[in-house]
Amino acid sequence: MDKMISTSWVSVRRERRGRGGEAGHDDERRGRSIVVGLLMVVAAVGGVVVVVEGGNVSYDGRALLIDGQRRVLISGSIHYPRSTPQMWGDLVGKAKDGGLNVIETYVFWNAHEPKQGTYNFEGRFDLVGFLNVVKQADLYVNLRIGPYVCAEWNYGGFPVWLHFIPGIAFRTNNEPFKAEMERFTSKVVEMMKEEKLFYSQGGPIILAQIENEYGNIDYSYGQAGKTYMKWAAEMALGLNTGVPWIMCNQADAPDPIINTCNGFYCDSFEPNSNKKPKMWTENWTGWFQNFGGRRPHRPVEDIAYAVARFYEKGGTFQNYYMYHGGTNFGRSAGGPYITTSYDYDAPLDEFGNVNQPKWGHLKDLHLAIQLCEPALVLQAPTRVGLGSMQEGHIYTNGHDICAAFLANIDTKADATVTFRGLSYHLPAWSVSILPDCKKVVFNTAQVNAQSSRLTTSGVVVDEELQSRKNIMTLSKAAWEIYQEPLGDRAESSFSAKGLLEQINTTKDDSDYLWYSDSVAMDSNGNFTLSVSSLGHALHVFVNQKYLGSASRSGQLKFPLLLNSGSNQLDLLSMTVGLQNYGAFFDTWGAGINDVVLIDAKSGGSHNLSSEAWIYQVGLQGETLRLYEDNGNSKWTSVREVPHHQPMIWYKTTFTADGNDPVLLDLTSMGKGRVWVNGEDIGRHWPENLSPEGGCSSTCAYQGAYYSDKCATNCGKPSQSRYHVPRSWLKDGDNMLVLFEEIGGDPTQIKFLTSFVTSVCARVAQSHAPPLSATQFSDNRPMARIDCGIDRVISGFRFASYGTPQGACGSFSRGGCHAVNSLAVVEEACLGRRACSLIVSNDFFKQNPCTNVLKSLAVEAVCK
Ligand code: GAL
């Protein structure tokens, strides 16, 4: 007989399915536990009404409660459209292996509703598919619906068509906006309900977020902003998801919505009610990158410090933003100027490799925190002073359960403190974790995890690719080109008086907008062309010749020679990702807003701004869809490939083999777009270099991190390598299409693959033994070397037990060195996939120096 299913919203207090030992650890706050809701599925089976319940998520002042149990949760952001469905399983698996129990993602409105009422939940945008991958892995989900998401995503996730709804004003008390926001939010919630994805229905979603950091900017919207925020809260609550709602960076989030913290540190944050748990929705693991910016790097010792401080001081939910950053494919990057790579220096790199030692050190941290969970869920911690810059926090029931965190917040000096009669050494800016209040199992500044030789896990060139059976061959002989026409095309251009704002004109259908005009002259003359632009970038052509380019906004000046007669002026203005953050960000304009010709001799000026200009949205190549394999006859085969010429489309084929992640090295190109087999890889702009200064060869983890600290890649292209997902490649010929705006040499393009070539470890005698292998190491510090599933350790570039110096890739011996260091590690490791090296005199069968703290440093080659 058919099941009759009906859903109803009930607000009931459920019996806790208490774990043994739970009862009796009650505290005052728990008594005020708020049960947010429970969705019950009532099924009539064979005439008997059976109540099929999903789980229950609620919260109190200490933690989220899942099925009545307070939980310590560790979460990581993975944004589904920033990788491919073929990558999702591996990414989520690595997140789970790294010790996470929650995956956080935004929902990207403009990806799902490219045209009003036309939806796309396919491929990379298969939200349900992604959540099911997380469910399969038995992890929870924090679904950040927004629908404003920021996220360095085009227009902060809003569809650009929203801007054209009459009378609309975004993120304020505006009826047309609220109607659209409610419609999309409800659609997402309904979709989740239909797929039974809320925890209350047996699914993985334990939390949902409405809006995003509105509290950062709401003052700009005045009273209407406050009204909007309350409306958003009520609207969300009215959707009856059965799980708690959160608002991040919203100090006045109305009950029962939980306000959460975003930032590099959140240990000092307190929610706006003692009935709400202390939650951290964005712990930035690095930072995003801009074209023209340096490459950000956040040391893992500092991330671990921030996380340990948070749990030390009462936090119970923490999320890494990002755990996997991935790629801004196509035109999805926000901006302006966000790079195509959204690597973020996250624990999983752009291509899905573990970014070591970040991933491994955080995994060890998570194991330590999880050992403390029985104590952490008891009640708020008690502080103990340990020194002027040192403090500890204890979680205990006063009997058999006790966990402690000991912190040294001094940015310079190590400290030795006494805690419960025992002495503990605390490196500067570090936290030690003692799950039994006695033994240190982890210190945030002592990294046991191995590191990779190169930050991108080893990127090598063609010759070495062969050895990994990753063979990429560009068929250099066969290039085809298409010359993009300059300026307007009669069939699709239009004329308007004055200079039009770009986004209102293109509706973001394309990055490109041509502004064309002609200037009549009596005689030849030298002029300066002064162009004011709101950005984001501009190329100037006069009489079909490329004159120069500019990026960013402001006034730009170009010298030019005008001929007697008619002169053709074609200005190509382009957006590089629409603004995604700030008050009224949706109204920020782009494009040219003033054009003046200044006579070089007389200094007299002629303003062209209010003339009738001819406009052309987009490129001919875009209209022809040259990036598709559609048998387009517009292509011309060439023997000599034109190079360093502007406005050319290039096409060639290549073959691919192997399994490692593929990168396209476009260092030889200028600026444009690139496609592989019709898939949009994104914007490239290798010509845009990061500043010469501001990078540091050494990076001190001690002291508060900020996004420019420890940056790298100065003076080099901000992004020269572009991710080509494996699943976009096929056997046989693959098609590569590039559009180059300024000029480059496509014959110099390279394919690279990314894999680990060597791994390093450096572990001191003072380190805590590895949590995952205490038995094997017999409670002694240990270095572990792992080359991954299909490689073995083929040799050592360096091995020294003693006082080695330097970092991975540049280790050197110190004054103390055990002569048999290499022999011992070779015996333990050669020919193996992975091996463990104990940092002790026993293991090395000698003591190379007495009364000195020794460490082991190794660099192993993986083949
Ligand atoms: C936050 C925002 C995120 C992201 C982050 C920086 O303010 O909530 O969406 O933009 O900054 O990466």
From TrEMBL:
<keyword id="KW-0472">Membrane</keyword>
<dbReference type="GO" id="GO:0030246">
    <property type="term" value="F:carbohydrate binding"/>
</dbReference>
<comment type="similarity">
    <text>Belongs to the glycosyl hydrolase 35 family.</text>
</comment>
<keyword id="KW-0812">Transmembrane</keyword>
<dbReference type="InterPro" id="IPR043159">
    <property type="entry name" value="Lectin_gal-bd_sf"/>
</dbReference>
<dbReference type="InterPro" id="IPR017853">
    <property type="entry name" value="GH"/>
</dbReference>
<keyword id="KW-0732">Signal</keyword>
<dbReference type="InterPro" id="IPR031330">
    <property type="entry name" value="Gly_Hdrlase_35_cat"/>
</dbReference>
<dbReference type="GO" id="GO:0005975">
    <property type="term" value="P:carbohydrate metabolic process"/>
</dbReference>
<protein>
    <recommendedName>
        <fullName>Beta-galactosidase</fullName>
        <ecNumber>3.2.1.23</ecNumber>
    </recommendedName>
</protein>
<dbReference type="InterPro" id="IPR008979">
    <property type="entry name" value="Galactose-bd-like_sf"/>
</dbReference>
<dbReference type="GO" id="GO:0004565">
    <property type="term" value="F:beta-galactosidase activity"/>
</dbReference>
<keyword id="KW-0378">Hydrolase</keyword>
<dbReference type="Pfam" id="PF21467">
    <property type="entry name" value="BetaGal_gal-bd"/>
</dbReference>
<dbReference type="InterPro" id="IPR001944">
    <property type="entry name" value="Glycoside_Hdrlase_35"/>
</dbReference>
<dbReference type="InterPro" id="IPR000922">
    <property type="entry name" value="Lectin_gal-bd_dom"/>
</dbReference>
<keyword id="KW-0326">Glycosidase</keyword>
<dbReference type="InterPro" id="IPR041392">
    <property type="entry name" value="GHD"/>
</dbReference>
<dbReference type="Pfam" id="PF01301">
    <property type="entry name" value="Glyco_hydro_35"/>
</dbReference>
<keyword id="KW-1133">Transmembrane helix</keyword>
<dbReference type="InterPro" id="IPR048913">
    <property type="entry name" value="BetaGal_gal-bd"/>
</dbReference>
<dbReference type="InterPro" id="IPR019801">
    <property type="entry name" value="Glyco_hydro_35_CS"/>
</dbReference>
<feature type="domain" description="SUEL-type lectin">
    <location>
        <begin position="777"/>
        <end position="863"/>
    </location>
</feature>
<feature type="transmembrane region" description="Helical">
    <location>
        <begin position="34"/>
        <end position="52"/>
    </location>
</feature>
<dbReference type="Pfam" id="PF02140">
    <property type="entry name" value="SUEL_Lectin"/>
</dbReference>
<dbReference type="Pfam" id="PF17834">
    <property type="entry name" value="GHD"/>
</dbReference>
